[in-house]
Amino acid sequence: MTKLTSFLASTVVAFGMTTSAMAADINLTISSWLPPTHPINTDMLQGLIDMMGEATDGKVGGEIKMGLAPPPAQMDLILDGAADITILFNGYQPGRFVGTKLIELPGYEGNAEAASVAYWRVHEKYLAELDEFKGTKVVALTTHGPGQIHSNKAVSGLADLQDLKTRLGGGVSADVGAELGLIGIQVPAPKVYETLASGAADAVAMNMGERISFKLNEVAKNVYEMPGGFYRGAFAVIMSQEKFDSLPDDVKTALEEKVFGETASKMMGVAWDASDVRAREATMAAGDNTIVTASEEDQAAFAEMAERVRTKVLAEISEKGIDANAAAEMVKAEMAAYGN
C-alpha cells in the first residue's frame, strides 16, 4: 500500500455527484477538488461524463468524488490508481509543468474556448514530447478566461497594485505578480474566500467566473480589469493509462474518436466562457461591486511587463528542447483564426 493509498483509506470521505454511473457497464471514478457547484464539476466534468456515455451508447459512466486528495496531489492520485480521472491546475506544482505555461502567457487575443482548442493543438504538435503528464492519458486541456485582479481595496491603476498581498495560483500568474509588485500568497483556490475574509490577503488573481464560484462579490468587491487579461490558467484532465488500456477496444475507439482531445477541450472552454459571462452580470448587478478597466497608459505599461514575462517563460520552455517561439506563434495564430 502506498502512502497516498493509506491516506485515502484512513482519512477520506468522498461525496459522489448525481451521474448515470449506476446504469453504465463501466463506472469511472472522477476526482475533483473544487466546490460541488463549481463549473468544473457541474459543466466540465459532468459534461465529460455525458459525452462518454453518449459516445459509448451508455457503456461508460462516471461518478465525481470530492475530497480524495488535495489539489497538488491529484496527478499522484491517478498514478496510484486511487481514481480513474481527475483535473489538474498545473500551477499548483511549480517545476513539474513548464510547457503548460505557454498557454498562460498574457497577450493572446480570444476567449477560453479559442484558447482551449489552441492549447490542445499546440500540445499535439509541440508540447506532448515533453511528456509532462507521464504515466497518464491526457483527456483534455483547457484554460480559463482572462485572469484579473479582484481586491477588497479600491484599485484604480497599476500603481495601486504595488505591495498588495495577493493570492496567486502559480504558473504564469506568479511571474506576472512579480512584475506587478504584488506580494504573492499561495493557497489552493477553495481557500480563497477565507483567506480574503480573514485579511490574510488583500486580493486574488482569478478569472471573472470565480466571482460566483468563490463568492468574491462578498470579499473582493473591486475588480481591476486588464483587457485581454493579466494571464490565463492552464488545466489538464488526465486518466489512468492503465484504466484506459483495460477498456474494451470498441469503447477506447469511441472515446478517442468522439470525446477525448480537442472535442472535450472545446467543451470545457465553452463552459469557462459561460461562467465568466454569468459572473460579470452578477458583479455589475451588485450594488457595492466595482469594475475598473485599466487606462490606456496602464495597458501600455503592462504590455512591457508582459513582454518580459513572455521572454522569461519562453526561455524556460526552450531549455526543454522545444521551439517555444514557434509554439507561441501557433497559439496566437490558432486563436486569431478560431471561429473565423
Mean pLDDT: 93
Low-confidence segments: 1-21
What CATH first level of the largest domain would be assigned?
Alpha Beta
Radius of gyration: 20 Å
How many individual helices?
Answer: 13
Number of strands: 12
Structural domains: how many: 2
Compressed to H and E, one letter per element, the order equals HEEHEHEHEEEHEHEHHEEHHHEHH
Full CATH superfamily name of the largest domain: Bacterial extracellular solute-binding protein, family 7
Query: What overall form do the CA principal axes indicate?
Result: globular
Q: What order do the strands of the largest sheet run in, or round the barrel if closed?
A: 1-3-2-4-11-5
Q: What is the CATH architecture annotation of the largest domain?
A: 3-Layer(aba) Sandwich
Note the beta-strand portion.
Answer: 15-25%
What is the end-to-end distance? 52 Å
Helix content: 40-55%
In short:
With 340 residues, the protein is α/β, with parallel strands linked by helices. The chain folds into two domains: 11-144 and 233-275, Bacterial extracellular solute-binding protein, family 7 (D-Maltodextrin-Binding Protein, domain 2), CATH 3.40.190; 147-231 and 287-337, 3-Layer(aba) Sandwich (D-Maltodextrin-Binding Protein, domain 2), CATH 3.40.190.170. It is 43% helix and 18% strand.
List keywords for this structure.
alpha/beta, D-Maltodextrin-Binding Protein, domain 2, 2 domains, 6-stranded mixed beta sheet, 12 strands, 43% helix, disordered N terminus
What does this structure look like?
Strand 2, helix 2 and strand 3 (60-66) form a beta-alpha-beta unit. The N and C termini lie far apart (52 Å). The chain has helices at residues 3-11, 39-55, 74-79, 112-125, 172-180, 192-197, 210-213, 216-219, 241-246, 249-258, 262-285, 296-318, 324-337, and strands spanning 15-16, 26-32, 60-66, 85-89, 136-143, 147-151, 165-167, 183-185, 203-207, 222-225, 234-240, 290-293. It folds into 2 domains: 11-144 and 233-275, Bacterial extracellular solute-binding protein, family 7 (D-Maltodextrin-Binding Protein, domain 2), CATH 3.40.190.170; 147-231 and 287-337, Bacterial extracellular solute-binding protein, family 7 (D-Maltodextrin-Binding Protein, domain 2). The chain has 340 residues and is an alpha/beta fold. The longest helix is centred in the last third of the chain and has 24 residues, at 262-285. Helix content is 43%, strand content 18%. Residues 1-21 have low confidence and may be disordered.
